[in-house]
Amino acid sequence: MKDHREQVQEHERVQRQEQEKEQERERERQPGQKYLVLTYGCQMNEHDSEVMAGILEEMGYRPAKRREEADVILVNTCCVRETAENKIYGLLGEFRRLKMNRPGLLIGVGGCLTQQEAAAKKIRDRFPYVDLIFGTHNLPRLRELIEQAKESRRTVVELLDRSEPAPEGLPIRRASGVKAWVVITFGCNNFCTYCIVPYVRGRECSRPPENILAEIRDLAAQGYKEVTLLGQNVNSYGRDLPGNVDFAGLLTEVNQIKGIERIRYTTSHPRDFSPRLIEAIARGEKICEHVHLPVQAGSNRVLRMMNRGYTREDYLALVEKIREAIPGAALTTDIMVGFPGETDEDFAQTLDLVERVRFDSAFMFIYNIRPGTPAARLPNQVKDEVKRARIKTLIEKQNQITKEININEEGKIYRLLVDGESKTNPRMLSGRTRTNKLVIFPGPPELVGKFVDVRITRGKLTHLEGISE
Ligand code: SAH
Ligand code: SF4
Ligand code: F3S
């Protein structure tokens, strides 16, 4: 039986949904200019795109469904790997025709790729029809920049080095009404030798806890059920703030916010995962049993060259402690093959670590050179065919493990937070377990935003299938 408070909340939620639908229909009817934001890269970029959308909506634009109907297109770029970069150049090439058919179209390119001056210059030279180029620190000025670009016949370029303190109070148009990203730290101080992120995102900068908590309270009041705290290394949250502020303390406070039922966080750096943090995660009943813990490599020699600050032994011991303190915790990771100087023996150590840990899943990458990073200057870059052979072996091994783990879920019952309709099948819904497994199951769209118990009927490589209990 639902108690009165739940019934009132339910009623308010349905009313709000109706209102939103009506507003959407109203916007459809109104003439006016439309926007599209295309996003590449990590969750940080996904969230920045929500801010870009928020700013555009405040300027009176409304969302376009297709590129062809957009009056403003912003591309939010990533440059963490060459493949990400090339996709963006390909996309900008496609815009040539779009711009010819719709000369009033305003094209803006922002994010991590354009934060680098050389890339910004390349875009201006190769794609002169781009109207605006901005970086990762320009969001507070985006409105003015768009207005300036509308007036100007030349490409408007503005790249700030850094914005301090971190921007607060920008409008956000969130992609979901159920779960929300909340940034806790901007930038990164780790300088892993392969990585471009510290150069394009700047130094680590924590948001004051009171601002984060106020944002989450506001989300709870709007009916959000889940938050994901975001930072390149959430574990070092608060180091740059006065007082005894740390990530364990922040999590404990978020755990007390009424209305928020699930708390996630990403990314955790293994070096900074303290016993105090493990304890806070184990104690917080809303903090989900999933840790994304990028290992990158299984060989101590390579880890040292990467400047990761831990050994394979440290990592394995940490995994053990996490599993002991948080029963049933899912572990996921990022792994790279082909770091300069990686030998067959080093790679064998990575495979060995993967077998020992048995990650629930992993993002696996081929190392590639990021100009300007220390690893780019290392001798002994690994040959392409060796990298390709290694990634193939690694993916096969990890996929086998993921499949075994997922098959083992069959018959178990999990509570899901339903987050939407399945992208591939309209009569199916999608939801996540606390361990962050994607489950597809049949059900009516009214269940979106609710918690549902589902029995797992099939474990697959990419997701689980289930039926509601
Ligand atoms: N801050 C996070 C994620 C950063 S980028 C962390 O520390 O884990 C996401 C992933 O991209 C990294 O974990 C790494 O596996 C991969 N990556 C970063 N630079 C790369 C490069 N030059 N080549 C290939 N993969 C890279
Ligand atoms: Fe890059 Fe390392 Fe920072 Fe992650 S922790 S963003 S991999 S430098
Ligand atoms: Fe890419 Fe920037 Fe994220 S480089 S991975 S979008 S921080």
Short account of what is shown:
With about 475 residues, the protein is α/β, with parallel strands linked by helices. It has helices at about 5-30, 45-60, 80-100, 115-125, 140-150, 195-200, 210-220, 245-255, 275-285, 300-305, 310-325, 345-355, 385-405; strands at about 35-40, 60-65, 70-75, 105-110, 130-135, 155-160, 180-185, 185, 205, 225-230, 260-265, 290, 330-335, 360-365, 415-420, 430, 440, 450-460, 465-469. It has 4 domains: about 30-160, Rossmann fold (3-Layer(aba) Sandwich); about 175-290, Transcription Regulator spoIIAA, CATH 3.30.750.210; about 325-410, 2-Layer Sandwich (Transcription Regulator spoIIAA), CATH 3.30.750.200; about 415-469, Beta Barrel (OB fold (Dihydrolipoamide Acetyltransferase, E2P)), CATH 2.40.50.
Account of the 3D structure:
The protein contains 13 helices and 19 strands. It has a 6-stranded parallel beta sheet, sandwiched between helices. A 5-stranded mixed beta barrel has the order 15-16-17-19-18. The protein has a 3-stranded parallel beta sheet with strand order 7-10-11, sandwiched between helices. It is an alpha/beta fold and 469 residues long. The chain folds into 4 domains: 32-158, Methylthiotransferase, N-terminal domain (Rossmann fold); 176-288, 2-Layer Sandwich (Transcription Regulator spoIIAA); 323-408, Transcription Regulator spoIIAA (2-Layer Sandwich), CATH 3.30.750; 413-468, Nucleic acid-binding proteins (OB fold (Dihydrolipoamide Acetyltransferase, E2P)), CATH 2.40.50.140. It has helices at residues 4-29, 43-58, 82-101, 117-126, 142-151, 197-201, 209-221, 247-254, 275-283, 300-306, 312-325, 344-357, 384-407, and strands at residues 34-39, 62-63, 72-77, 106-111, 132-134, 156-158, 179-183, 185-186, 205-206, 226-230, 262-266, 290-292, 330-337, 361-366, 413-421, 428-432, 438-442, 451-459, 464-468. 38% of the residues lie in helices and 20% in strands. Strand 5, helix 5 and strand 6 (156-158) form a beta-alpha-beta unit. Helix 8 (247-254) runs parallel beside helix 9 (275-283) and helix 12 (344-357) packs parallel to helix 13. The protein binds S-adenosyl-L-homocysteine (SAH), iron/sulfur cluster and FE3-S4 cluster. The site of FE3-S4 cluster has 12 residues, from helix 2 and helix 6.
